[in-house]
Amino acid sequence: MNNKKVAMIVVATLSVVVPALVAVLIYSPYKISADYEWLKSIPRFNATINSLTAVLLIFGGVMAKRGNIALHKLAMSLSLFLGVCFLLAYVTYHSTMDSVIFGDANMDGVLSEVEENSIGGMRTAYLTLLLSHIMLSAVVVPFVLLAFYFALAQDFVKHVKIVKFTWPIWLYVSVTGPIVYWMASPYYPL
Question: Which stretches are transmembrane (predicted)?
């Protein structure tokens, strides 16, 4: 089997397995018992990772336009590394903790009518942003992996072609992640 075929199989497999694993962990009623206080800080850690990724993506894009390929490679490699770190932390968090419910002020795991009325349209705005963030984060994974593959394979024509729509989606996901965290942060347990 040639390298291109192996790469495409890896990209396809990861593109299915990663979102499926995340969905199972989020919606599973079974959580790994772990009573570690540091687990509660993972959402803030992930928001920081997303913020750093956004900065690196912008820097990497600027470096590519300026022709500084060495700094472009470094920025994009660090972005991918941070993406892997994010995924590992995200899986750790959601395998041990329940998801936060936006607006659940008393943190009892139920959004009462009173709580829902007190946040009004903010819940719709939050859920719209969250849904777009989640959907685009799942969609962008195979394209990011393909962009890296094309760069490594030195097929720069395909790399540039795929990056034209992959980069803005990845940047959107990296920017909306911290915004989603900031909006939901009052509802995380301390």
Answer: 7-30, 42-62, 74-93, 130-153, 165-184
Q: Does residue 180 lie in a domain region?
A: yes
Residue 114 belongs to a domain: yes
Structural domain includes residue 7: no
Nearest Cα to Cα of residue 140 among 111, 179, 177: 177
Q: How far apart are CA 47 and CA 53, in angstroms?
A: 10
pLDDT in tens, the chain (190 residues): 677 888 888 888 888 888 887 777 777 777 677 677 788 889 999 999 999 999 999 999 999 999 999 999 999 999 999 999 998 898 888 888 878 888 888 888 888 889 888 898 899 999 999 999 999 998 999 999 999 999 999 999 999 999 999 999 999 999 999 999 999 999 887 6
Q: Which of 137, 132, 123, 124 is nearest to 170 (CA)?
A: 137
Number of domains in the chain: 1
Alpha-carbon distances, residue 159 vs 18, 94, 105 (angstroms): 23, 33, 46
